[in-house]
Amino acid sequence: MSDTKISVIIPLYNAEKFIRQTLISVLASKFKDYEVLVVDDCSTDSSVAEAEKLLPHFDGRLKILSTEKNSGGAGVPRNVGIKNSAGKYICFLDADDFLLPTALGDFFDVAEKFSADVLHTEKFLTFDNTGESNFKREDLILRRDETGKPVEVPTLEPDDLHERIHRCAEGRFLWMPWGKLYRRTFLVENKIDFPDMAFTEDLVFGFECYICAKKYLRVPFVTNIYRMNQNSVSKKIISSRDGVKLWLRSVTDGMSFIAKFMDEHKFFRQPDVKYLVADFLVPTYFRFIKNLFQGMKPHEVEEIFYDELQNPALNPTGKNLLVAHMCAKRVLTR
Questions:
Q1: Would you say residue 220 lies in a domain?
Q2: Are residue 271 and residue 190 in the same domain, yes or no?
Q3: What whole-number distance in Å separates Cα of residue 315 and Cα of residue 320?
Q4: How sure is the predictor about 143, in pLDDT bands with cuts at 50, 70 and 90?
């Protein structure tokens, strides 16, 4: 049986300019009991070749895997990584970001002390350099969760699921999978993985983890540097109609996945709880498209939504949940 402590999983797609820097940041870790699984999603550039250049430096701790076909998102590669990982814990890292040298050690020490299922960092560093050169220290900006006061010491989330749902609805958490540590057996035993979606798959994954974790621990330290890469899927500028089409597919699929998850848990059979979950999900999803309609008139936005909601490919469960919740909010706020 492997005694690897942490598996670092990196989904890779057309990141030839960045992947070596990302891997070097892991290589610089002061904590050495780790493995790295780079999972290529059928890149069309030299990303894999760039990663392979560092194989000799990892002394067998770097594995390069691939998906069978391009999935169009990070979820499927991450699932491949989970399936092939051997670490007691798992952390995810994007192919254009960095880990701080102290990150893995901080993660492991606190996870062991609290027997945590999930560790959730609330602060991270960002920089705007999108080129191949190394970032400068003065470029770094410290950021944190948008709402709520960050913890000053490791703090467990309450056991009461009602309280957890209220905290979700208050927008107290950032749902990206990086900046967190997961006990691998926790993910496996609860059958938690990433849905096959183009984007926002991390919201579904994060919500299921938050609900299922018996020990969900918020921690005060910083582990990640996030590159503001304007060429990433989530940052690309697209037309409002194309944006709504992608968004509606994402929100209806995501709400359907979460609806299925709730149907399997007795706690969610309470109608008020399901409403609270929708009250958390819908505004969160809307934040992804808030910049698409700048300068447009209400009737123009309405026309786009009306046309796209006729798409028969949309998940009907998710679409019905979305429309029902929006109607309820409209009635209650008039």
A1: yes
A2: no
A3: 9
A4: confident
In a domain, 124, yes or no: yes
Element (H, E) at 30: none
Q: Are 80 and 39 in contact (CB under 8 A)?
A: yes
- Whether residues 303 and 258 share a domain: the answer is yes
Assess if residue 1 is contained within a domain. no
- Which of 56, 63, 57, 6 lies closest to 31, judged by CA? 6
- Angle formed by the axes of helices 240-263 and 298-309, to 10°? 50
Vertex 46: Cα angle to 127 and 58 (nearest 5): 75
Given the structure tokens 């797609």, which residue do they identify? 13
Report whether 141 contacts 226 (CB < 8 A).
Answer: no
Burial class of 301 by CB neighbour count within 10 A (0 to 12, 13 to 18, 19+): middle
Averaged pLDDT for residues 212-241: 79
Handedness of CA 70, 76, 77, 83 (dihedral sign): negative
| Gyration radius of the chain over CA positions | 20
Q: Is the dihedral of CA 220, 226, 232, 235 positive or negative?
A: positive
- 280, β-bridge pairs: none
Residues paired with residue 89 on neighbouring β-strands, in sequence order = 6, 183
CA angle 96/25/143 to nearest 5° reads 65
Contact partners, residue 162, CB within 8 Å, separation at least 6: 273
Structure tokens at 244: 């709504």
pLDDT tens figures, 276-312: 999 889 888 888 787 778 788 889 888 988 998 999 9
Looking at the 3D structure of the chain, how many domains does it have?
Answer: 2
Distance CA 141, CA 334 (A): 41
Using the 3D structure, point to which of 200, 227, 254 is the last residue of a domain.
Answer: 227
Q: What is the pLDDT of residues 17-63, one digit of tens each?
A: 999 999 999 999 999 999 999 999 999 999 999 999 999 999 999 99
Q: Residues 176, 254: one domain? A: no
Q: What is the torsional sign of CA 280, 285, 288, 290? A: negative
The residue among 227, 256, 275 that closes a domain is: 227
Tell me the residue range of the domain where 196 lies.
6-227
